[in-house]
Predict the 3D structure of the following.
Amino acid sequence: MRTVTIEPTFRAWRSKARSLLDQKMHPNDVIWSTQGDDSDELFGFSETTKQTPENKPEQKPQTSNRAKVPPFFIQLAQTVCCHRSQKQWSMLYHILWSVTYEQEREILFDQTNDTMRKLEQMRKSISRDIHKMRAFVRFREIQVETNDRENYVAWFEPEHLIVRVNTPFFRKRFAGMNWSILTPDECVHWDGTDISYTQGVDKSQAPDGDELEELWRGYYRSIFNPARVKIKMMQSEMPKKYWKNLPEAEIIEDLIQTSTDKVNGMMEEENRPLKPEPKNKYLDHLKQLNNSEDSK
Amino acid sequence: MNKLQKLEILADAAKYDASCASSGTTRKDSSSGKGVGSTGGAGICHSYTPDGRCISLLKVLLTNVCLYDCHYCINRRSSNVRRARFTPEEVVDLTLSFYKRNYIEGLFLSSGIVRSADYTMELVIKVAKSLREEHHFRGYIHLKTIPEASPELIAEAGKYADRLSINVELPTQEGLQELAPEKNVHRTRDAMSTIHSKILETKATRKELKKANSRVKKPTYASGQSTQMIVGADQSNDSQFLNRAGDLYGNFKLRRVYYSAFSPIPEPSVILPLKSPPLIREHRLYQADWLMRFYKFDVNELTTEQAPNLDLDIDPKLAWALRNRSFFPLDINRAALEMLYRIPGLGVRNAQRIVALRRHHAVRLEDLIKLRVNLKKTLPFMICVNHNPAKHELDSEALRAKFAPPPEQLELDFTAQIIIPKTTSIAAQAEAKHGEF
Ligand code: SF4
C-alpha cells in the first residue's frame, strides 16, 4: 500500500499516474491524497509531486506500455479534477490501469461500467455547478479609496472546487471593473490587469448589501406572473441551497403566498368603459394607411 | 414617482412578452478592458421567479403610455393603468447597474407608442446606441421594433441589437382589426422583410471582408429576429397560428415564433374573453411548431379541415400517426430517416442513431431500450427484428384512449406533462420543454 500526495490538479495527477503506471503499481495498492499531511512523511511512504509550472515543458512519456486514451477521456479527467470528494483521482487511475494492463479499452465507452458511470455523474455535477456559479454570483459594490475604478465583491459557496475554472468567464465579462469573488475554498481577484488568488474566507468578510438590491427585488416582484405559479419548476433550476446568497430570494415566500389574491383581484376587477380616442396626427395617418390597405 | 415605482410599473407592463431568450448571437466580450459584458453561446438564466420562468434579461418598457388600443394589452390607451416613463438615460443606467452585479445577461427593451412610431423608435435606439457606444456594453440587447417606423430607423436599430423582434400578435388581419385596430399584418411582414434582407446583407459583407482579409471594420447587425403570437384572445384556430408561423419561418427565416397563452390582465377590456385558454394549448402549439422545424412536417399535416385545432389530449405527432395509420407499422430497419421521424415517441436524435446503428446490425428491441426510447408510445407503430405489433392493436380506437388522459384529469395532467428541464441554458430549456415527444 502506498500513499501518494499530489496537488489537486490534472497535471499533477497525470504526471503521478504516469510514473505509477510505469512502476506497475496496481490501483488497489495506491491511496491518493491531496492533503500535504505530515503523517505520510512519518511512515516514509509519501512522495509529493509539485505541480508542473505552466512554462516548463512536460517530460516526454516513455510510451512503451502506455495506452492511449481518447481526447474525451482527457477532458473528462480534466473536469472531474474539481470534484470536492477527492475520490476522482483513484477512479481515474483505475480506468487508466484497466486500459493499459487489462486490455479493457472498451470500458471507456461502456456506459454501464460502474466507475465510468460515476465519473460521468461527477462531470455532470461539476458542469452544473460551474454554470450555476456564473448565474448566481451576485456582486455588491464597495467603496475603495485607493483606486478610481468601480469595485465589486461577491460571496459564493460552490459545491465543487471550481473557482479557477470559472475565472476566465468572469474576467472576460467584467474586465472593466475591479472585482473579487470570495468563497470558503479560495478567493479570486481582478484589478484590471491581473488575476490573483488568495485563501478561502468566511462569509463575514463579504459585504452584506448593496443599494441596488431593492431595485432588483422590485424588478423580480414585478416580472413574476402570479397567474402561473410553478414552484417545482423554479426549484429544480434554482435549488433552495442557493437562496441564502441571492438577494431576490428573500421575497419568494411572500410572492407565492399573495399570488392567488392578486389573480383573484384581477379577475374581479370590473371592466372599464373604453376611453375616447385622443387627437393625434400620427393616429390619423395610421387610420388612412389602414383604410387604404383594406381597399387593396 | 421614484425609480423603484417606475421600474415596477414598466417591468410589470413588459412581463407578458415571452420572446426573451438571450441565446444565439455573435461572440463578444470586454476583455479589451473597456466597458463590461460578454455574449456567445447559450444565454444564462440568472434567476427564476415562482412562475418557473427564467430571468435572463432586464425586460422593461421605456414607457407604458401608448397611442394604440390593443385590447389584450394592459398598456392600451383606453386602460386606466398607472403610467410611467423612463428617460433613455435611466434605462441605460439601470441596465449597467444590474449587469455589473451579475443579475442579467442584457436588456430587452420595448415601448408603448408615444407621439409617433418614428419618435418612439428613436428613443429606443438612443438607449441601445448609448449602451454600445458610450458605455461599450457588450452584453445582450434585444429591441422590440415598431413595424410602422421608417426602414432607416429599423436598419439602425439592428446595428446595436443582437436581436430584433416584431410581434405579429394575432395570425390574421381580421383578428387584428377586432383586437388591435392600429396594427396590420402586411406592414409587419414588410418590416420583417426589411430586417431579413439587412441580416443577409450584413452576413454577406462580413464574409467578403473576411475572405479578402480586409482590415475594414466589419459591419454589425442583429443576428436574428423573432416574434410572438397571443393564443386564445381571438377566435383564430391552431391551423391559422401554424400557417402564420410557417409563413414567417419560410419567408423571413425567423429564429423563433413564441406562442403566449392569453393571460388575464388587470384592467381587462370589455371585448376580451373572460377566461384564459388552457395552458396545454400553448404547449401543443410549441410541439407542432417543433414538428415543422425539426421533423420535416408540412404545416398542412398538423391539422385537418374538419379539426383545425390541435388535439389537447395527445401530442400532435401521435395525433398525426393515428390519422394516418396506414403508414404503420414501420420497419425501423428499412424505413427512410424522414419516415422514422414520424414514429410517435421517437425523437430526431434517436431516429438518427437508429440509422447509424442499423448499418452495423439489425436493430433489436434491446437497442431501443439502451437508447431510452419511449417504448410504450413507439411499439404499436414499429417493427424491428424481435418485435411486430399485432395489426389489431394499431387499428383499434383503444390506442387513442391509451394515450389520452382521462378527461376529468386534464387540468392536472398537463402540469405533470410539462417536462422539467435538467439543463439550464435557455435554448436547451426551450428544447426540453417543447422538443420531446
Ligand atoms: S402597441 Fe398595442 S401591444 Fe404595444 S404597448 Fe401599445 S397597446 Fe400594448
In short: Residues B 66, 68, 70, 73, 75-76, 112-113, 180 surround iron/sulfur cluster (CB under 6 Å). Residues 114-136 of chain A form the longest helix (23 residues).
